[in-house]
Amino acid sequence: MSLDSVREYFAAHAPDAAILVTEASSATVELAAQAHGVDADQIAKTICLRAGDTILLVVTAGTKRLDNRKFRDRFSAKPRMLSADEVVAATSHPIGGVCPFGLPSPLPVYCDISLKAYAEVVPAAGATNAAVRIAPDRLVELTGAEWVDVCQ
Question: pTM of the entire structure?
């Protein structure tokens, strides 16, 4: 189960980080912001994309949208969204619970600079009702992510 892989990940890499499981769904940015009492941009949404032959994760502030031009300039390819089945196959996480933690195999992770506006962000944690509160720099450190500027 996806939530279990995220729990195992945090137990091994950041045992001080608490996974928050809510009764309410946090499958969308708006629902997650309500469930966790934060601004919508504090929700760190994770997008699973293909750039050429590479599958990668981009983590952005909740209401931000990818800028196709910036993405092409950075990755030399047009961003292609994966289907729900492809996302689950690549991450083990369902849409609405996708995160850069507890992946079945390593994927390149990129964090958009839009996350830097907050001392704490709330990415999903492998399920549509699970999340974790974390500083953006710690998110980058734990996932081996690279900072990029790919949003509007």
Answer: 0.95
Read off the pLDDT of residues 81-124 as tens digits, 9 standing for 90 and up. Answer: 999 999 999 999 999 999 999 999 999 999 999 999 999 999 99
29 torsion bin: left (phi>0), alpha (psi -120 to 50), beta (else):
alpha
Beta bridge partners of 45: 60
Return the residue matching tokens 């499958």: 27
CB-based burial label for 72 (10 Å; 0-12, 13-18, 19+):
middle
